[in-house]
Each structure stands twice: as C-alpha cells, then as structure tokens.
Amino acid sequence: AGQVGELAELVQSRLVRPLGLEGEMYIGIPPDLPSCRLASLCTAAFVEEMTESATGRVQGPSSPRLSEAGAESEGKQAEDLEWERKKGSQQIMNPSVFNMRSVREACVPAANGHMSARALARFYSSTIASYSTSNVPSKSSSIAGIFNAETIDAIRLSTPASNLHQEEFKGGDLMSQAEGIKFGLGFQLHEFVVKSGQVVTGLAHGGVGGSLGFAIPEEGLAVAVTVNQMRLKNCQVKKIVREIYKEFGLDSKSLC
Questions:
Q1: N or C: where does the chain have the smaller number of CB atoms within 10 Å of the terminal CB?
Q2: Among candidate residues 238, 206, 202, 207, the one with its CA nearest the CA of residue 220
C-alpha cells in the first residue's frame, strides 16, 4: 500500500502539478473524486468484435456457409473462449472491469490511467519539449520538458517487440496495425513523413479500444485522442488523426 501511494504521489508531484493538470490526470483516482467526472467505457461493440475475431467468425450477408466440420470446429472454439472467460485470471481482460470504482481507485500504472485528452496531449508535449526547444520552434514552449534531447534519442533506439508482443498487438488496434512494431523505453515507436519528405520517428502509445497519444520531436507536435466508445478498429479516431496529418503535412503508414 505504501508503494502504491508513493507512486501515485510521484505522478502528481513530477508530472501532474508541474504540467498544470491537477484534477485531469491520475493513476488511481482519489476516493473523493465525483463519479460524474468519470467517463464510462462502452464496451459492448468491442467485446463482440473481439469474440468474433477470437472464434474466427465472419459476419455479414456475404459470409460463406460453414461446412458441418467447420461449424463443429467453430463451436469448440466458442466453448474454449467461454471457459477462458470464466477463469479468474481472464476477467481483467474484460474492459468493462475498468468501469468498477475499486479498479479505478487502484494504482495500476499499465492499465488505469485517467486523464482528459488535453492532459494526455500535454503529457506527450512534455516528453519532447526539451528537444523541440533546442531544434525547432516549439508549439508548446510554455511546457517544461521531462526528457532532455539525449534521452529522447535513446528512446528512439528501438527494440523489436518479441513474438509474444507482436501477437498481442495484431488485433486491429490503430496503433499497431503493422507487424514488427518497435518499442523504446516503454514507448511505441512509429515513423512519420514530415512536410519536407524526411522520415522521422515519433513516440506513441495506443490504448485498447482506440484512444491514443503521440509526439513528433522534429515537429514539436503532440496529439491525443481519447474515446470511451471502444472499438477493435476505431474508424472515427482514424479519421480524426488523418485530418491532423493533412493540417500539418504529415503521413504515417504504421499509425492510422
């Protein structure tokens, strides 16, 4: 409990307060935070899509008729999936769990960050602020950088994901559509083509269901999109990001 409290306070003291994000960013919400401040995850469509993906079913009028053997195999897969759902260790994979107040109040750094889109964008902006200050005119010069330029360069010395990670991220998430996704010190790394034609590497990460954040050091640009209507392939988020690309003369084959 002490370590959990220390981590939550570390986030508040090192990130939240310096970035002016009090009340907008938490890892583990405080017990007195009103529920009306929290968006609920809408998970029905996402769970249905995940189930269809896991059982190999194809929906729609053009779906081929299953052979008797195929139908039997599909039924076995569905039974196996149902068994997995009932195992206690699998319950945490159901995204609706994260609507529970007790889970929201827990300090789970990899899974239950609570923040507005503004807070997420401001965080990503802070990751590249020092780099932007020394290399390009920053679009957020008032934000203190949490990494220096050398650290940003170190982050971008990527390590290919393990086969396990590649399998985990092949589910259609907008941030991970390309195989061989790379990571650097906890960040997903994506290549962007900037207006000059130069290919640069940006820091990024995508949440299950469609929310995402990314930053491009050479452009001094940070972007965040948050959603509570979870989808396996969130077309609306893709449209938003593509419009941002148009505005800033960017492109990316691996991110949206």
A1: N
A2: 202
Q: Which residues pair with 192 in a beta bridge?
A: 200
Distance CA 81, CA 142 (A): 50
CA 75 centroid distance within chain: 32
* Backbone torsions φ then ψ of 200, nearest 5 degrees: -125, 160
DSSP string computed for 146-184? SS-HHHHHHHTS-EEPPHHHHHHT-S--GGG-SSS-EEE
Paired strand residues for 198: none
Q: Is the pLDDT of residue 163 over 50?
A: no
Closest CA to 201 of 249, 255, 240: 255
User: Which residue's entry shows tokens 């009028």?
Assistant: 61
Task: Please list, in sequence order, all residues whose beta carbon lies within 8 angstroms of the beta carbon of residue 112, skipping any fewer than 6 positions away.
Answer: 27, 28, 98, 103, 104, 106
pTM: 0.77
